[in-house]
Design goal:
With about 550 residues, the protein is an alpha/beta fold. Helix content is about 40%, strand content about 15%. The chain has 15 helices and 17 strands. It has a 5-stranded parallel beta sheet with strand order 7-6-5-12-13, sandwiched between helices. Strands 8-9-10-11 form a 4-stranded antiparallel beta sheet. Strands 1-2 form a two-stranded antiparallel ribbon. The chain is elongated and about 95 Å long.
């Protein structure tokens, strides 16, 4: 929910263009053409058994797909989390299923950074060469490169619109072909892969024995005549007509899907990775094969210490996930025409990140209502602090105790596998208790006022939701509404004004505006109603103004 601290992107890009990181990123940098990884003492583990890492204990627990249970989150280096995530295969529009995973992990990264002071170094790959990209490019009669760049840019714009923080760096597959070739050569050298006469290279699953299947089991695969085992998967694919290809020791071809992530993650983070994330649909075969490749290359038993997987997004009433192949998806762009990024983020916060989530109007309306309640409380508390909202005496001591209790509950919930539903419940309870003390009264009773405690409430709520969604943190939205109300007031005053009565003409007891101004009054009333429907009430405060018929107006926001 909060901004993560990332390393300087220009510096990382400069380093990335010249070097690839070796097995120990703290010691050695080598040229990509000489990319060689050797076994590291930090690369631990035996067989399928998970080995608890040594290093800095964060005090958090997170569900680890490698063990199917919550584990203490222990990082290799104090205050730093190395994090790799699989980015999009850019052949089509991104949809809400993708958005759900990226927003959920964005929330977790913000929690680690803002709440627990951990610097998250996040790297994401862009798959810009793939069977799907090639097929779509042929359909559209464009080059795969043009197609991939177009959808890559759209993806980044979608993430920006959803307020997802970018990684420290995006890395394209096509810009890392030499590193991928070197990585495959290393796996062959360690006798865990083999080349065929046709120019393909396959990973040899039999060579690692029972170590394959750490996430989801060994699984099944289709047999190919040149494969030693039906489960063997492609590291390098021999070139075919009308397909992009690159030179390699095995002839022209292109990378397989899984090898790109192993290579790129290793080129940045070396032989040890703290956290790997992705949707649960990527656990097998993609993440399973990544693990096999990296551990075969680095000759170790545990490359990635924690695998975090987000649950699927389902359409309400359907057991099937939202996906392009099922043609049951909603694009991010289409969604944002009806709902805001903040509403979608609240929608994600209301369920645990690793749970399946149902998409429906009812669930989105629940998120919208929660946001409206928080926003309304923010406006009321600010009005109270300004002296614009008169209320009975506040039980200040009880509110301070409530705030301290909420803070403790939020930290406990986040430390327990990033339990955002518990966090939202804690904040909504805080808002409820705050609202109980903000009941307006018609006449001031000169009771002592307690603006400071409400300032503390607002500061904490902003801290919790900063980045998750804007709760008027900059005051910009409020200023816009204030200016709009002031403009409405001026227009209404003009519409209600009457012309001076010419000498000799009779004076009416209750002058009314001329008929030409009636549409202005109607427009002012319509605007007032529209603002009310969005939780902003424009009320007449009742004081007489200098001009006859003019009423001074103010803005009061009430929780619905």
């Amino acid at each position: 929910m909060w901004p993560c601290i990332t390393i300087c992107r220009p510096l990382l890009l400069k380093l990335r263009s010249r070097y690839a990181f070796s097995k120990d990123t703290r010691q050695t940098l080598v040229s990509p053409s000489k990319l060689i990884f050797r076994p590291s003492a930090s690369c631990t583990g035996v067989g399928k058994k998970w080995t608890r890492p040594t290093g800095y204990d964060t005090g958090l627990k997170t569900y680890n797909s490698l063990t199917k249970q919550k584990e203490p989150l222990i990082l290799a280096q104090e205050g730093i989390a190395t994090w790799y995530s699989c980015g999009p295969t850019v052949y089509d529009h991104a949809h809400l299923g993708h958005a759900c995973s990226y927003v959920r992990f964005d929330i977790i990264q913000r929690v680690l950074s803002r709440v627990f002071g951990i610097n998250v170094i996040h790297v994401m790959v862009i798959t810009d060469i793939d069977d799907k990209i090639i097929r779509r490019a042929l359909e559209k009669s464009v080059s795969p490169t043009v197609l991939a760049r177009m959808y890559e840019e759209e993806f980044k714009n979608d993430m920006l619109a959803l307020k997802v923080l970018p990684p420290a760096v995006y890395l394209r597959v096509t810009e890392n072909i030499p590193q991928i070739v070197a990585f495959i050569e290393g796996i062959i050298r360690n006798e865990h892969a083999y080349a065929t006469k046709q120019g393909d290279v396959y990973f040899d699953i039999g060579s690692i024995g029972d170590r394959y299947g750490k996430l989801m089991g060994a699984g099944d695969a289709t047999g190919e005549p040149e494969k030693r085992d039906s489960r063997d998967f492609a590291l390098w694919k021999a070139s075919k007509p009308q397909e992009p290809s690159w030179e390699s020791p095995w002839g022209k071809g292109r990378p397989g899907w899984h090898i790109e992530c192993s290579t790129i993650a290793s080129s940045v983070f070396g032989s040890q990775l703290d956290i790997h994330s992705g949707g649960i649909d990527l656990a097998f075969p993609h993440h399973e094969n990544e693990i096999a490749q990296c551990e075969a290359y680095h000759q170790c038993g545990q490359w990635g210490n924690y695998f975090l997987h987000s649950g699927h997004l389902h359409l309400k009433g359907s057991a099937e996930k939202m996906s392009k192949s099922l043609n049951n998806y909603i694009t991010i762009k289409d969604f944002l025409e009806s709902y805001s990024a903040n509403e979608f983020r609240m929608f994600c916060l209301l369920t645990k990140y690793r749970s399946a989530i149902d998409y429906s109007d009812a669930s989105l309306n629940e998120a919208r209502s929660s946001l409206a309640t928080i926003t309304a409380f923010t406006h009321d508390a600010q009005a109270y602090m300004r002296g614009q909202l008169q209320c009975p005496a506040v039980e200040e001591g009880a509110l301070w105790e409530r705030l301290a209790e909420t803070k403790a509950n939020v930290v406990r919930a986040l430390a327990d596998d990033f339990d955002t539903p518990r966090v939202v419940n804690a904040i909504m309870s805080l808002v409820y208790h705050g609202n109980r003390h903000l009941q307006p009264i018609t006449k001031p009773d000169r009771s002592p006022r307690s603006p400071a405690v409400f300032g503390a409430f607002l500061a904490y709520i902003r801290e919790v939701f900063e980045g998750a969604h804007s709760v008027d943190s900059s005051g910009t939205l409020e200023n816009v509404v204030e200016q709009l109300a002031r403009f409405r007031s001026d227009v209404r005053a003009f519409a209600l004004s009457v012309q001076d009565t010419p000498p000799g003409e009779p004076t009416h007891a209750s002058p009314s505006p001329c008929s030409e101004k009636l549409p202005l009054l109607k427009a002012c009333d319509t605007l007032r109603k529209d603002l009310a429907s969005m939780g902003t009430a424009v009320v007449h405060q009742g004081s007489q103004a200098k001009r006859k018929g003019e009423m001074r107006e103010g803005i009061i926001h009430r929780a619905r």
